[in-house]
C-alpha cells in the first residue's frame, strides 16, 4: 500500500512539474512575435498585442499601417533580433530589448528599442502580450507624428558626338496650360481654339479641367511644346486664360537628322515598370523608347535621391535614411554630327540609309536613316494623330533602315572577288566571253537567265568586270567558287553572325546556296544574300587594312582598330581590288565615273539591287554606292537609296555620296 501511495505521489509531482513547464514564458512569446515580424505577418502579430494596445489601434489599422509604411518605403531585407535573458521572468511584466535592420528606398535603416510585455488572462488562460505602440515601427515615431518620403530626381545622362556636340540633352520645354478662373465664361470657345492650335482633342482638354484637384486659380497643364515653336507659343498664349511654364525636358538639337540613331524618351508604361521592377524606377520616370536612348538606358538613367524622415507634431524632422541623387552617365558617340547632318540632308527625305566609317579605326562617323521624325515632338507627348500619320506614311519614316538588311546588289562583287581570289577559284586573268545581255549555264535553268546591264562586246576579266559591273562574270565566278566555298567565304566576312555593335543590327544572311541559280545570283548580290549597311562598310575595310576586317565601333570609349576578321585576303588581292575600284570612278566606262573629284582620288563600287517576284517584270530597285579615298583613307561612305528604278538607278546614290565627300575635303 505504501508503495502504491509513493508511486501515485511521484506521478502527481511529475504532472505538476510538466504543467509548470508548459506554461508560456515571456521570452518564448516575444521570440514568436519577432519571428512573425521578420515574416511580415502583420495580422498574426496583432494577436500578440495587449488589450490596452488594441484599444488604441484596430487590427485593420495595424495591418494597413505596416503594409503602407513597408510598401511606400520599399522595405526589404528586414531582420529583427532579440536575445532575452534565460532566467524566468518573475511578476506580471517584462521588458526585452531588440534591434531591427532593413533596407529602404533611401538606404539602410537600423535601430534598437525595448519592448514591454504584460501577462494577461484571456479565455481562462494566462499569457504574455506585447504592449505595442508606434515606436515599434520607428523609435522616434510618436502617435501624432507622420512618416514622410521625399525624392530628389537625378539628371539623365546626356549623349554627345565625338566633338562634344549635344545629341540628346537636358534642356527646357514650354508647358502650355489653362487657369480655369480666367476663362470668364468663354470655356467652349477657348477650348476649341486651344484644341486647334495644339492638336489636343476638346474632350481631353475638358477632362483635364474637370480633374478633382483643379481649383479656379490653379495651372492646369495641357501640352508641352518645344522652345523653338515660338510662333505657336505666341498664338496659343494670346488666348485668354492660357499661360506657359518653363519645364525640364529632353531636347534633341539635331531633330530628324539623328532621330533613328538617338531615339527619344517617354513616360514609363505599366508594362515597362513591371519589367524593370527592382531597378529603382517609379511611375513618374521616363525611359528610352528607341535608339541609343534605349540601348544606353541603364547608363543614362541615374539614381534618384530619397529622404525618409519623421515629421514630428511640432514640425521638426528626424531623418531615418537619406540617399543623394546620382546623375546618369554622359556618353560620347564616335559620330560627327556635322557629317551626320550632311548625309541626312543629301538624302532629302528619300527613303534610304547611309553610313560614314573611318576605315582605319572602324569608328562610325555617321549613321543615317531617311525619312525620319522629330524626336522632340515624340518626347514631349505627341498626339495620336502624329503617330498615325507617321505609321501610315508610305515612305515609312519610323523604319530604322540602317538596322535592317537588304540585298546589296553589285556592291557585293568586290567581296565575291576577294573570296574567289583567296580560295584560288578565280584569278585576275580568269576571263569569260559571253555575247549579249543574258546568259544561263545550260537548259536545266529553264527560262531563267542572268542579265547584265550592257553588252561588254568581248572577253571580260576581273578588272573589267568590276569596272563595268558585269553580273554574268560574277554569277560564273560564284559557280566557280562553289556552294561550300562561297558559304565559307561569306562566313569569313561575317555573314550570319551577330555584329558586336552597340546598336542592335540584323545579321547578314546567306540563304540556301545549294540551288545553282541562287548561287549564281548571290555572286552579284542578289539571291538571298542580305546585309545591313554597317556590315557592308565593315566588309570593305580589309581593302585598306592589309586583309583585316575591322570591328565597327559607335561609342567613343570603345577601343579602335580592332580586328573582327583577320587574314581575309593578302596584299596582292587588296592591290588588285583597289586598282579596279579606282577605275570604277576614273575609267570613262566606270559605273561611278560621275563621282570623280579632281585632285581627290576615290575608289568605289556602285550597286543596283532589284526586288521582284519573277523574272521578266520590272521590280523595285535600290541604288547603292560605296567610296573611299585610297591615298588618305580617313573616310569611307556607303549609301543606299530605295526606289531608284525611275531615278537613274545607282546614280541616285553616287551623286549624293560625291557631294558628301566633296564637302569633307
UniProtKB/TrEMBL annotation:
Q: Which PROSITE patterns match?
A: PROKAR_LIPOPROTEIN
Q: Domain Penicillin-binding protein transpeptidase, which positions?
A: 352-660
The Penicillin-binding protein dimerisation domain extends over 152-317
Which InterPro entries does this UniProt record tie to the protein?
Beta-lactam/transpept, Beta-lactam/transpept-like, MecA_N, NTF2-like_dom_sf, PBP_dimer, PBP_dimer_sf, PCN-bd_Tpept
Q: What pathway is this protein a component of?
A: Cell wall biogenesis; peptidoglycan biosynthesis
For this protein, the Enzyme Commission number is 3.4.16.4
What is catalyzed by this enzyme?
A: Preferential cleavage: (Ac)2-L-Lys-D-Ala-|-D-Ala. Also transpeptidation of peptidyl-alanyl moieties that are N-acyl substituents of D-alanine
Name one molecular function that GO assigns to this entry.
Answer: serine-type D-Ala-D-Ala carboxypeptidase activity
Instruction: Give compartment(s).
Output: Membrane
Q: What UniProt keywords apply to this chain's record, in alphabetical order?
A: Membrane, Signal
Query: Which residue positions does the secretion signal occupy?
Result: 1-19
Q: Which domain of life is it from?
A: Bacteria
GO process terms (BP): cell wall organization; peptidoglycan biosynthetic process; response to antibiotic
Under the heading PANTHER family, the entry gives:
PENICILLIN-BINDING PROTEIN 3 (PTHR30627:SF25), PEPTIDOGLYCAN D,D-TRANSPEPTIDASE (PTHR30627)
- What this protein is called in its record is serine-type D-Ala-D-Ala carboxypeptidase
Q: Which organism is the protein's source?
A: Bacillus oleivorans
